[in-house]
Specification:
Radius of gyration: 26 Å
Mean pLDDT: 81
Oligomer: single chain
Distance between the termini: 54 Å
Number of helices: 12
Strand order of the largest sheet: 6-7-8-3-9-10
Low-confidence stretches: 1-18, 305-327
Shape: globular
């Protein structure tokens, strides 16, 4: 399937990201580990049907935010509200991870966590069977509802593996798959839980350029064709700026910027977070050098052409602007 690259093409068939229709919201979320504050009063508002990227330098608190949203960590302060499509609100703060998943919030991990000794199909079936209605007794006795549930989970696993492009590797051991295929398999396992919100923690980490392009297309398809809201952590800025509707930036546990990809790219606080703030001396030196270069260019344009002065120290010639001003 061909995926449109332009913004207009991507938006044509995807769910609307209504600013008033929030699927996930945090208010004042603060997470501390002893004297270290990992998240500091973080506010997040994710619209239904959008792709929201969370970026920031290493140690900014991105994975801590994901762990808080999915029940792995319990923040000391704040609220985490999830609103499924069928209505109602659920407080996720302090809720166990398997209960968060059952509500419709799934995730992948920065470090792949597959069952390496099981096949791709078995890995996905484990996730699909979290939705089974049959209990352990009916499964042990082989009752009709248990057999029906087994068929349903098998069909679900096949469908999901087909969707992510792994149907031809269905019987291969997860540990024997390429790194890119393992990333896809982990996404497939998350999709098998029928999520409304999918959290992807650095899905492109360790992949090659071709695999990144394929992942980019897959994320768009998950959002557009399955109607799943995607919350993405990623260090690959090309991928982020290509697929994200909005970008939120964390630094030292605080939100420092939020907006469209183009807006965030130009935000001074974001540039300083990634590249560091320039000192006053550096700023003054850059300004002085720029002014000197501009004056030199103006003089060259307005004045007569002259021979380059001799460099008496080396016997060669030297450009007027290549001395102390250029340094």
């Amino acid at each position: 399937m061909t995926t449109e690259v332009s913004k207009e093409g991507r938006d044509a068939g995807r769910p609307s990201a209504d600013s008033g229709d929030l699927v996930l919201e945090t208010a004042g979320v603060t997470l501390r580990f002893g004297g270290v504050t990992s998240l500091d009063n973080v506010e997040l508002r994710m619209r239904r049907g959008e792709i929201l990227a969370v970026i920031g330098p290493n140690g900014a608190g991105k994975t801590s935010l994901f762990n808080s949203l999915t029940g792995a960590y319990t923040p000391q302060e704040g609220r985490i509200t999830y609103r499924p499509a069928d209505g109602g609100e659920h407080e996720l703060r302090g809720r166990k991870p398997h209960l968060v998943s059952r509500l419709g919030v799934a995730r992948t991990f920065q470090n792949i966590r597959l069952f390496g000794a099981l096949t791709a199909l078995e890995n996905v079936k484990i996730a699909a069977e979290t939705r089974l209605r049959s209990g352990p007794v009916s499964i042990m006795l082989g009752l009709p509802n248990a057999r029906r549930a087994e068929r349903d989970s098998d069909r679900k696993a096949h469908d999901v593996l087909t969707f992510v492009g792994l149907v031809d590797k269905i019987n291969e051991l997860a540990g024997a798959l390429s790194y890119g295929d393992q990333r896809r398999l982990e996404i497939a396992r998350a999709l098998a839980t029928d999520p409304q919100v999918l959290l992807l923690d650095e899905p492109a980490a360790g992949t090659n350029p071709t695999e990144k392009l394929e992942l980019e297309e897959l994320i768009r398809r998950i959002n557009r064709e399955l109607g799943i809201s995607v919350l993405l952590i990623e260090h690959d800025m090309r991928l982020v700026m290509s697929v994200a509707d909005r970008v939120m930036v964390l630094n030292f546990g605080k939100k420092i910027a939020e907006g469209s990809p183009s807006h965030v790219q130009q935000d001074r606080a974001v540039v300083e977070a990634y590249l560091g703030a320039a000192s006053e001396e550096d700023t003054a030196a850059v300004a002085e050098a720029a002014a000197a270069l501009e004056a030199s260019q103006a003089a060259t344009a307005d004045g007569p052409a002259v021979d380059s002065p001799k460099d008496t120290t080396s016997g060669g010639t030297k450009d007027d602007t290549s001395g102390e001003e250029r340094a």
